[in-house]
Amino acid sequence: MIAAGLIDALREVVPDGVLTAAEDLIAYGFDGTFYERTPPLVVLPSTTAQVCAIHRIATARRIPLTPRAMGSGLSGGAVPLDGSIVLGVSRMDRVLEISVDDGVAVVQPGVITAHLQALVEARGLFYPPDPSSLKQSAIGGNVAENAGGARALKYGVTGDYVLALEVVLPDGTPIRTGGRTVKNVTGYDLRRLFTGAEGTLGTITEITLKLLPKPRVKRTALAVFDRIADAADASTAVLAAGIAPAAIELLDALTMRCIAENGVTGLPLDADAILIFGADGNHESVVNEDIAAIGAVARAHGARTVTVAGDDAESERLWNARRSISPALARRRPNKLGEDVCVPRSKVTAMVARVRAIAAEHRLEIPLFGHIGDGNLHPNILCDKRDPEEMARVAAAARAIFEAAVELGGTLSGEHGIGLLKKQFMELDVGTDALALMRRIKAAVDPLGIMNPGKIFPEPGGADAFRL
Amino acid sequence: MIAAGLIDALREVVPDGVLTAAEDLIAYGFDGTFYERTPPLVVLPSTTAQVCAIHRIATARRIPLTPRAMGSGLSGGAVPLDGSIVLGVSRMDRVLEISVDDGVAVVQPGVITAHLQALVEARGLFYPPDPSSLKQSAIGGNVAENAGGARALKYGVTGDYVLALEVVLPDGTPIRTGGRTVKNVTGYDLRRLFTGAEGTLGTITEITLKLLPKPRVKRTALAVFDRIADAADASTAVLAAGIAPAAIELLDALTMRCIAENGVTGLPLDADAILIFGADGNHESVVNEDIAAIGAVARAHGARTVTVAGDDAESERLWNARRSISPALARRRPNKLGEDVCVPRSKVTAMVARVRAIAAEHRLEIPLFGHIGDGNLHPNILCDKRDPEEMARVAAAARAIFEAAVELGGTLSGEHGIGLLKKQFMELDVGTDALALMRRIKAAVDPLGIMNPGKIFPEPGGADAFRL
């Protein structure tokens, strides 16, 4: 399976970083989806020079590479296909610089997101992107998938913080794009091209991130609804009122039940849905006023109670409950198909209703949660991938959810990426001509097609939602 | 000069929109730089379908096209080279939709920026990007150059507000990319590729922009300094203090003299430099507190006075003075070479000193102003392009300024684009390999090279800063 001499060539580059034993490889064959593809080989460089050398070897031998950070992604982006070897960046985990004066951090791709956040917050700075996986996921993966998070509502997604990238192109050439300035229009925006490209255009080896001053005050409020439609309306109404919350998160009844089964206590399990609101700023009086205004709007739209977390610990409990959803769902049923549709604000209530109708029609449990403030919902279809009859219904439901999102003026993916999970629906969303243009760009950057094959682009003739 | 049949073919598409008379063409041959190249022909479509048809004709005949909105750019991006015909979008000037619910505006490329701002503000919304040319420039040009403005410090540049684009590809195929959602990671970020591409990849025919709630309170303060280095230090110190002003603008003594000669009164002409600070928000007490904190930091860094504008009219007078700089400079000397370097925050004081030293060394007047808060400075070299001896010094000074910016970790252009003016310095900034990658992307999108030739990419062997 592995070409002769490949292992030796890679061991010359990274003597202690080439894995070939089956028990080592298995850990590099999956991500947060239900896909599993054990790679033939894993290589773990520590330096950009080693990444370049690995790329040159892969190019010379026409061997596909799948870059991988922590493998916590939710679209299959890091799952190695078509015999790809895995290029893991977990050893490139150094924070190279935090500059208070320039408001930037320079990091290697393997730095854990929460670790970076803690470091910069200790210096009075703030790195806002907060994917729910932040304690497991790394910046390199966040950039590759252009990850979002709850605070994206106020602060934007990972890509909004990427000032510069060092990228190793497929043939092993390292380039730098962007810089340490917040404004830069010098030529084409390569930063944004590589951000969210899911490792299909090159391997990211260094990232310069914009940092903000840390907000001095944070508040969290919980609003409880007897009808999910009211919760959705309340979210839209808060934004229409000109309040700028840091986050608005939706959890429906089934989602709450799943995390309660997993040990999270204190949630109103008799409610149809809850909203968790975050607000932050530098002035206690203003943040309190914002939270009060949010509460008033929520009550006017049918919230039966609105409670404000009394202290940071109570607030953190709510956010930890929110972040525990993905692992909790995985325990209720053997598998889950997590979606990431994003619809315009005015269509959130309609999308929520469509997901519920689709769940009923296809007789599936679909817990619904997500960043409802920016229209980014995560219906998760619970399933058992060993059951072909159920999986046929799952595929039909997934298609129906995508079609509903696109019909409502939305998109397939707000923050997880396309990867393997949604590639067959790309044309439905972006159209034939834009997809063809993406293919031309892919071919221009990666003419041999060695970077993370099988991702983003649909396979010919495959209407199949997902290859198990 | 014009190929036979071309005029007839274009008149079939746009019967009343093909200009060929010399007196009509001359107005389409320049922008805000000193370049002039009268095009052989101008075509003024009103619809996307007409733009597609024009592209198809240009493709079939291998005729280069230069898209143009209002031609107020500052890098030569809209100046037609190499026999390009001008595709002017000034007739495509409709605001198609303003949605309060979704927080978006959908516009054609010829909509004047200030016009859109007034419309959305009347609905309680806010479109932050504010290039100084906002009363003359159009959204299409702003997107093509990824324009900034004073408020970019707090709110980001044009590209941060582009949710979706309709673009006509070189061969006449229209595509849509992005949507009405604030999050979208469905495939490669084509929006960001076309934003700032200066018309070299296609013609933008429709733009969906993100809108924010309009801040309820705005304040402006003026700080006066006897030494420009203190002003630069004060700007950095305000940001380091964690205050988030909407804008920090620098005007040096010579800049003030130029606008005073042009009728602006009330500026402290005996000072070495001034800073104009903007602050905004929803709470009067907070904005007042921010302005007070800014004033305290400025005084601690050597401001001899700090005054807060008493009302909106006084505030608007200061901002109008700021916006009058470019036209005023053009009256002091026959020409100006306006630069747009951007350096990391911590290097602003050093960059200011370098510009002054370069002016002295090359015996040139270089008024210095700009968005100092985000490190984006506009040294403008005053000159007379008919004087070859002076122009040789101008070229040397321009190169020295670029080299200083790059040496300090900065970039050639923060918000004006590269166009024609800075293309010979591209390699100095982005490096050989990233430039080669940009060329490959250009070739993938525009294989015949018909879109806005002569822009962004340096000409072989030309060390020459600018072809007059």
From TrEMBL, chains A, B:
<dbReference type="GO" id="GO:0016491">
    <property type="term" value="F:oxidoreductase activity"/>
</dbReference>
<protein>
    <submittedName>
        <fullName>FAD-binding protein</fullName>
    </submittedName>
</protein>
<feature type="domain" description="FAD-binding PCMH-type">
    <location>
        <begin position="35"/>
        <end position="214"/>
    </location>
</feature>
<dbReference type="InterPro" id="IPR036318">
    <property type="entry name" value="FAD-bd_PCMH-like_sf"/>
</dbReference>
<dbReference type="GO" id="GO:0071949">
    <property type="term" value="F:FAD binding"/>
</dbReference>
<dbReference type="Pfam" id="PF01565">
    <property type="entry name" value="FAD_binding_4"/>
</dbReference>
<dbReference type="InterPro" id="IPR016166">
    <property type="entry name" value="FAD-bd_PCMH"/>
</dbReference>
<dbReference type="Pfam" id="PF02913">
    <property type="entry name" value="FAD-oxidase_C"/>
</dbReference>
<dbReference type="InterPro" id="IPR006094">
    <property type="entry name" value="Oxid_FAD_bind_N"/>
</dbReference>
<dbReference type="InterPro" id="IPR016171">
    <property type="entry name" value="Vanillyl_alc_oxidase_C-sub2"/>
</dbReference>
<keyword id="KW-0285">Flavoprotein</keyword>
<keyword id="KW-0274">FAD</keyword>
<keyword id="KW-0560">Oxidoreductase</keyword>
<comment type="similarity">
    <text>Belongs to the FAD-binding oxidoreductase/transferase type 4 family.</text>
</comment>
<dbReference type="InterPro" id="IPR051914">
    <property type="entry name" value="FAD-linked_OxidoTrans_Type4"/>
</dbReference>
<dbReference type="InterPro" id="IPR016164">
    <property type="entry name" value="FAD-linked_Oxase-like_C"/>
</dbReference>
<dbReference type="InterPro" id="IPR016169">
    <property type="entry name" value="FAD-bd_PCMH_sub2"/>
</dbReference>
<dbReference type="InterPro" id="IPR016167">
    <property type="entry name" value="FAD-bd_PCMH_sub1"/>
</dbReference>
<dbReference type="InterPro" id="IPR004113">
    <property type="entry name" value="FAD-bd_oxidored_4_C"/>
</dbReference>
